[in-house]
Amino acid sequence: MAEYIPVKVQRLVLAASKGCCEYCWAPAEYSSALYHFDHILPTAKGGKSTFANLAHSCSGCNGYKSDKTHSMDPLTNQRERLYHPRNDVWTDHFQWSDDGIKIEGITPIGRATVALLQLNRNGNLNLRQLLKLVGLQPPF
Question: Does the model's pTM come out above 0.85?
């Protein structure tokens, strides 16, 4: 059973996310899929439903992440923790490709997160290309 998330906490997470998935930056308003409150540290591993442990996540990222907190860096083949939207700065671990369409991991944490969550899956790339046509990609 899902843990109750107080409405006040939900609002804080939504405000911090700026209406986007906090992993792949897909804007919720242009998605046909549901968005979730991802427990960064899963409840099964002791995570709580607090602002410090919740991220706004698209269905794709939420599904690939599941209850995982670590993954392999494809460059070093070392186990790394995943990006933590409340503790990490996105631009410290990721950058946009020159065309602004792909997310590139620039640290072991970034690369492990890109690989596990498949941040450049086809649906995301297609959405980013469309958003770029109207000047909304990259989002920052």
Answer: yes
